[in-house]
Amino acid sequence: MTVTQTLRGLLRRWYILVVGLVVAVAVAAGVWTAVPPTYTRTSTQILLPGSGMIPSGSNPYLFVGGLAPAADIIVRGLGSKNVIEEVVRGRAGTTVQVARDQTTSGPVILITVESTSDRDAAAVLSAMNQRTASLLDSLQAEENIPERRRISVVAVSVDKRGTAEQKQRLMMTGASGAAILVLTVLLASFVDGAMARRRARRAEDADGESSTDEEAGEASGSDEDGATDEASAVSGSNESDNSGEIDEDSRAPEQTRSRAEDVADLHDSGEADSERGPVAPESTDRDSSTSRSAASPVDSTDDADLPDRRGDRGERAPIG
């Protein structure tokens, strides 16, 4: 399926897209409302040498170069899992990161607190700053370092107001809306494909029914033609039989009349022969001359005179 066909299918199912868009907007708005912004607060602390480690009246910030290892030790102690869990206990959605400030070369400790509540972020940041000082004092006390030679920690900057970050909020809102839109497009494509397949099946069924009807029509037409031909043949044979009977019926009176005329002629010839002498009657069948000559008592001389007498009466029409 090409991009053009996909777009046409989506346009045909525009109502699904509209409903999906409305649902996506509603879900995105709900997520935006449900997910609060993330508040971030930071603090930076620097380690300073004790007064007994620098010349009297000197600036302690000029002697911080050798305190970087001590800063790494403090970072390790503050960033441990046990310390962080103890500080953030009861404050859901709060995270703490402790690291050295990579933007400076001095022993600067950077503490970053993120929370869904600005108040929780402020409380956790304050607790972490106090933990830095307490951890540093406890480590030096364990080593029995004199007070004048102990390292101290000073807060350089502490955020008084949290910075609201919408990154996570935007990501979750966009992800939910995009997921709904993708599901909407997939649903519209699926519905369009299902409707197209249904139309294709209906068209195939309609074509099959039409072809079946055509075949049935052709079969019935051929049957009707065959029946018509048979009826025509039967009627033709009946007509021929009837015509034959009519011809026979029409010929029957003619044969009867011709036979009656033959009988009358024979009667007349009998009367004429009776005047001349006894003459045997002539057979009606002219084809059997042998049987006639055997049955007649007239001799050959009388037989020779018969044509003359027939000539006097005229020639009879043949029978049949």
From TrEMBL:
Transmembrane stretches, start-end: 14-35, 170-191
Basic and acidic residues composition-biased segments: 249-276, 306-320
Assigned keywords, A-Z: Membrane, Transmembrane, Transmembrane helix
Disordered: annotated span: 201-320
Top-level taxon: Bacteria
Composition skew (Acidic residues), residue ranges: 206-228
Protein name: Capsular polysaccharide biosynthesis protein
